[in-house]
From TrEMBL:
It comes from Caballeronia udeis. The lineage of its organism: Bacteria, Pseudomonadati, Pseudomonadota, Betaproteobacteria, Burkholderiales. It comes from the Bacteria. This is TfoX N-terminal domain-containing protein.
Amino acid sequence: MFGGWAWLKYGNLLCGARDDGMLVRLGKDRDTWALKISGIVPMTSRGRRMNGWVWAASEAYGNDVLRRKLMDAALEFSRSLPGK
C-alpha cells in the first residue's frame, strides 16, 4: 500500500508500518489526543490531510506504552465500523 506492512481488522485498514513510521487509523475527531504527542502528526496523502489518521514517527511508535495506546484506540475505532 505505501511501501510497508498493513494490518486489517474486519476488512478495514487498522494500521500500517514501515521503517520510518507507523500509520494509525483513530477515526475522525478521535485523533486530538494523539496529535499532542511529540513525533505524531496528521497523516497527509498527496498534500491533503487524512482526517482521523495519524503518522507516528519511529521514535514515537518505538515506545511500547505509546504504541499500545495507539493500537488500543485504533482497535476501538475499527469495532465501530461495519465489516467488509
